[in-house]
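Sample entry (323 residues):
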Amino acid sequence: MDSLAAAPGTGPATSPLPVLRARTSVASFDSLPTNRTVVMGILNCTPDSFSDGGQYNSIDTAISHGLRMFYGGADIIDVGGESTRPGAEEVGEEEEQRRILPVIEALAKAGALVSVDTRHATTAALALDAGAGLINDVSGTNVHPEMIALIARRQVPYVLMHSRGNSRSMDSLTQYTDVVEDVVQELSEVRERFYAAGVKPDMLIVDPGIGFSKNAEQNWELLANLDRVAELGNRVLVGTSRKRFLGSLLTTSGKAAAPKERDDATSATTVFAAAQGIWGVRVHDVGASVDAAKVAARLMEGKRNREARLAEPAQTEPAQAAL
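Predicted structure, serialized as C-alpha cells:
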C-alpha cells in the first residue's frame, strides 16, 4: 500500500493504523512454504465469535490485527465476517461483505496472502476481486452449487471442510458408525462434485472439520488419525485452535479452560499435525504455531537424515597391501 490514506478505515474520524511496511513480494499460494506446515492466522471480523468476538469487529482493529499476524509470521490471514460457532445466528451477505471486504483489500495490498472464510459464493467472488487468494468454506456437505461453479470458473484454492447441518443444528448431527471413515467418505463424495464441475484436484484442500458436528471424543479420534484423511490425496488443513474439546481437557476444579487459555494446547496439536506432514493449521496464536511447525519440521528432517544414513551401503575397510 502506498500510504495510510489508501487504507479503508483510516480517515480523520477513525483511529490510526500501524505504519504499513513496504511490500517485499507479491503473496501467492504457490509461494507458500514447502519445508514446513503452513500457518493460517484467524481474523474474526465479528461481534460474536466464540474466542475473540467483538475484539476486531471494526475495520481499523481488524486490519491492525491482521497486519500483526502477517508481520508475526502468518503464511495466510483467514478473514471471516460470520461466526460459525455452535448456535450462532446467520449473517446476511451484505453485512458480511461490509465487515470483511475493506479488510481483505488492505491486507492484500500490504502483501499478505488472504483467505476468505465464507459460505456464500457472492461474498467469495467479491473477496477474490478485492485481493483474496483462497476460499475457506465451512459448508461441508451443504456446499452451495454456486460455490462449486465459482471455484470451477476461477480455479482458485478452496478449503473443503467436513461439516453437517449449520451452526444451529451441527451439535445434534454427531452420529457416526466410525467418525474417521465416515468423514473421509463424506469429504470424498463432496469432492467428486467439485471434480465433476471441472475443479482441478490441486485446487482442493480438505479439512476434517474438528469441532463441527463432532463431539469431543470424535475430535480426538479424527486428530489421532489425520493420516487417514491425508490418504484422500489432497492437502489437509486442520483447525483445533481454542476449541471446546481442548477446554474440556484442561478442566480445573470442574471448570473448563477459557478459550484464550487453550493456546498452549493448540500449539501441541500443531506439533502433532505438523509431525505427520499435514499441510496447514488454522490458529489464533500465530507466533507459537509457527515456532511449533518449525520444530516439527526439524524433527522430521532429523528422522529422514538417520533413515538415509542407515540405508547407505556399509563402508568396508580397504584390504591391506600384501607385504
